[in-house]
Amino acid sequence: MSEPTTSRTVTVTINGTMVEREVATSKLLVHFLRDDLDLTGTHIGCDTGNCGACTVQVGGEAVKSCMMLAVQADGLDVTTVEGLAGDSGVLTPLQRSFGEHHALQCGYCTPGMLMSATALLEHTPHPTEDEVKVALQGNICRCTGYWNIVEAVVAAGKSGSA
Amino acid sequence: MLLREVEYARPASIDEAIRLLAEHDGARALAGGQTLVNVMKARAASPDVLVDLADLAELRTISFSADQSALEIGAMVTSSQIVGSSEVEVARPILAEVASTIADLQVRNRGTIGGNICVNDPTNHFPPLLVALGASMTIQGRDGERTVSAEEFFLGVYFTAVGEGELLTRISVPTRSAGTGDAMTGITLGAHGTYIVSAAASVGSVGVRIAIGCVSSVPERATAMEQQLVGGDYSDAAVKAAAAGLGASLDPPSDVHAAADYRRHLAEVSAVRAVLQAAERARG
Amino acid sequence: MTTVETTKTAALEKGTAKGQSVPRKEDRRLVEGQGTFVDDIKRHGMGYLHFVRSPYAHAKLGSIDVSAALELPGVYGTLTGDEVAILTDPFFQIAAPPGAAVKDYALAVGKVRYVGEPVVAVVAETRELARDAAELVEVNYEPLPVLVDARKGQDADAPILHEDCEGNVSYSGVWEWGDLDAAFAEADHVVKISELHFDRFNSTPLETNGALVEFNRGTGQWTIHTNNQFPGFAAIMMGPAMRVGLDKLRIVTQDIGGGFGNKITSHPQLVVCCLLARKLKRAIQWTEWRTDFHQSMSHGNERWFHDTEVAVKADGTLLGFRTKALDDAGAYLRYEPLGGVIWAQVAPGLYRWRNIRLEFTQVMTNKAPVSPNRGYSRMQHLWLTERIIDIVAHELGFDPVEIRKKNYVQPEQMPYETPNGCVYDSGDYPRALDIALDLVGYSGLEERRAEAASRGKLLGLGIGLTLDSGTNNFGQSQLINPDLQFSGNNEVATVKLDIFGEVVVTLGTTPQGQGHETTASQVVADIIGCDVDTVHVRVGHDSYWNSHAGFSGTYASQFAVTGLGAVKGASDMLAVEMKKLASMVFQCSPDDIELADGFARIKGNPEAALPFMALGAIVNANNAGFPEDPPTLNCRFVYRPPFDVPDKETKKGQLTLTYATQIHACIVEVDPETGVYEIVDYAAVDDCGTRINPQIVEGQVMGATAHAIGAAMWETFAYDEDGNLLTPNFYDYHVPHAMDMPPLKTGSIESPSPFTSLGTKGMGEGGGGGIHCVCAALQDALRASGGAIVYDSHNPYHRVWEMLQDPGPSRANVEVSAT
């Protein structure tokens, strides 16, 4: 039987490492990542779930970590931008492509963009321009106008795996 | 951001979920959370207890009814699941077509059909669509199940036939028969954006059902227009003639995106376009 | 197939690195999530700040009770306006009377004047708790009548925002050059436009404002980690208000998540953080919410143009215009009324008319304060000049392309002095326009129009031209307040050769994505002869350690001139010192030394070569026995453009140093049944002189294009009659998403500036070219359905539908008379 509580122990595998923490049930996943675990690559750009700067992968799918409670991630795998290159420090083809195509300026939306695009490339390794736009529609960028971002993702798909 | 303190429970069965909802004042079911969590961030609502339905696997299935006459969609089925469902593709593809334009991919990955219709925001996609398709909803409480039609289900914004201590468990959508065509269209703020006005239409052997979104707190059936089209003449001229007066019959809100008059006009245009497209699809 | 196509133009003579799209140094950390943005910074025991904000647009403040908040366990303390009024002086006002009388504090004192105005600050152990506690603060408001429409601001019964100003006007002035009477006497036609409206919006950088502020009680110094993009200005505002010298304010920035001018005026919130850090003896963390940003920060200037009259000759020659500009400043003057002069940098637009009169009046309203926004104040004015051209062409039957080309300042006239003494340094507007038209397929326009008509669509072409006037002469501020003591401009860089031969650069700038680390490295590498990769540019601004000057920051399209001018100056100095040092070692003349490939070597003798490491070691660690003082290899250069103070009587003078151009053209298709429209082709052609990094320049053009498309179609800060913002979040304030963007083609030409050491021009703002061209394209499309006149910069679908339903009101706005 499950009775309501205001805090719970959650066990989450983040970027391949299992983490067990006591967390307030009202805490958003994004604050759990940023404030409790110091994974500050995941950003916050709005308070209404529109901007996508907080996008991470949960259970292999792109989700906005500001519209999910930390306790909802209990038992699941979470990947953040810090987990893309991983300990090896070797950038993924997508990360490299972002640099090559000038797909970032201020870099604030970039982690969210990378996480949405990485999920896309995992499902659709060679996406068309339109498929990329659909996959990135939940991520706001105010610097680039998106053209170079779309180009970078399409190019990463052409070059090989994500 | 920064929610008020809230109690949280994660039941393992539907019965347990219903018990939790019934036993705790101010308890609310948490589905995908793509609206509810936002509402709580704004502190526009602060439930005392969240009953997370995440572990209720039986609410996450898409299947056919015993007689194959209906698609049975669990309340916790996400929009992305609907988009990728082979059952939906065969039986009622409009559901996937519409689901694929809801908000954005991240929201579709978590947002559920049950959450979408229980919120019943006037700009939401599924409420008018399900009214046009003649869907029905199954609600479970401590005393068992009941089923209501889509039109009976929607009562107002955040207000549906689901009572206190009850849970929406599934949505039943009639499977498409030969000669049926469905369409949904409207005007959005940007591509795949929030609807300013929407219209869903379903043309079948018994006539057409039309529902308009964003013009009141519930999807509005365009019954007068439906009746004028009873004869089955879905020509451009006939459909436009049938829509005349639809706008005037509505009392839509004015806001920063559209004045009431513009919404009335868009309701007519959208209804015409939805019916024409549905009729074309019905012809195959 | 991608949507971006760039036309390549013949490459100019380049150095090795300069002029190439070298990869950005910033990217590695940003794609790994290892950037340091302000909310990422944590300190032991820090307190989180949450503002209690006004729910009223205009109200008298009654009692404030914070006791319930303070009783909550974990709440560290609060700050109210009463305390602020004791601890600080009102912020310095840029305005002359009447605006000079505005009393602006870090928290509301006595009254609130817009929804979202900070009233009380609450600090607590966690973010959540600070918000909980803020909800317990009780504030009594006595609501007052609200002024939302600037056009009613001078009515006899208008509510007064600032009683000390005896009215709502913050600034007014008449700007007139040439001979208007003669121009209108010479004209064959006079086109009158009764009202045009430039809408209120801003660039909504994705990262909101924030700070982490520490106070050192031993030294009395604050360290302010922030994302403010103009620390020099913030310090000038904060120091006097806080009654401390500027050295007590150490301002540090690192990665900034977009700025676009919107992060210049956060000084009130920074003062609150400073006061609380001192009061509560702990670090204070403040991160603005998105809703707070929309409600309170740096809206772009909303502007009306009334009674515009244009003098036109029968052959289409434009002689001049007169108009009355009414600017809505919002509730406080945080950077205003500088908008009252900034427009004059581009007074004639790109055209040769010599007679201009503009009566400028700025009114304060119960809306968020305006502050710089990409294209600040010039965008509004250039929209006017472009609207004038297209309305004149529409009404008198001229071709919009031909009338432009006929009246453009021509390339052979460069440098061109405008009627108000500004000097357009270089450019080829007709050529840039031809390239843009070619890119959108202008030659097949009529066929496309007919094809669209066959599908029931209205198709139209529009052109929008902008000038990025860059490198301000701050002396222009004296044209709105003769008592101000600002003039000229400056920026600082240091370049040094360190002990192991590392090249280390510091900048005074605060980039928000413009790639300064990269372009500075390119300039340094070419001058001292090394790889771009071996140049280390320190990340961010630090007023304590970095070189900086009073105008240091990143704003107003100037880095390529001021920042890189300083980098070049310091690099040149270092190169001289390195050659001198090598010549001392080799006992030859410095002229015999060349710097290349990381060596100082004797020309023609590759054996006689010292690696940079040897030079650095000699000076820093091995200098005994040197016959004379070796150089320091640590060079600081202050770049200062050659400006005079403009003439206060005639309001003439050089207001900016360089003028980059962007020419935008687009094709729209309108659904006449609904007013919904779509941009189906778009081109932007840039000319910013010599480009250090073409890819970065193109990125700026793209960003400016996206902002302008957003503002033209969706983005608006709309208020209801009670002063509530109707678009306080990204649901209702729809910014374009990836699926909303039209196919884009970019092109470029390079007209090097004769006034800058590198031939560069400041660029990046783009001046709203997309707004101008979307308006023009809509008007062109609507020509076939009633001929409405586009009168607003913001055209959502419902406005287009209204113009289609009844073009009458917009047409009544315009009158043509023969003289």
Describe what you observe in this structure.
Chain A is of the alpha+beta class. Chain A is 33% helix and 17% strand. Chain A is built from 6 helices and 5 strands. Chain A has helices at 29-36, 82-85, 93-100, 110-123, 129-135, 147-159; strands at 7-14, 17-24, 55-58, 61-64, 77-79. Chain A has a 5-stranded mixed beta sheet with strand order 2-1-5-3-4. In chain A, a hairpin with a 2-residue loop joins strand 1 and strand 2. The radius of gyration of chain A is 16 Å and the shape is elongated. Chain B has 284 residues and is of the alpha+beta class. Chain B folds into 3 domains: 7-52, Uridine Diphospho-n-acetylenolpyruvylglucosamine Reductase, domain 2 (2-Layer Sandwich), CATH 3.30.43; 57-174, Uridine Diphospho-n-acetylenolpyruvylglucosamine Reductase, domain 3; 181-283, Enolase-like, domain 1 (2-Layer Sandwich). In chain B, strands 4-5-10-6-7 form a 5-stranded antiparallel beta sheet. In chain B, strands 11-12-13-14 form a 4-stranded antiparallel beta sheet, sandwiched between helices. Chain B has a 3-stranded parallel beta sheet with strand order 1-3-2, covered by helices on one side. In chain B, helix 11 runs antiparallel to helix 12 (260-283). Chain B is globular, with a radius of gyration of 19 Å. The mean pLDDT of chain B is 97. By secondary structure, chain C is an alpha+beta fold. Chain C starts with a strand and ends with a strand. Classes of the chains: A alpha+beta (162), B alpha+beta (284), C alpha+beta (819). At the A-C interface, helix 1, helix 2, helix 3, helix 4 and helix 5 of A face helix 1 and helix 17 of C.
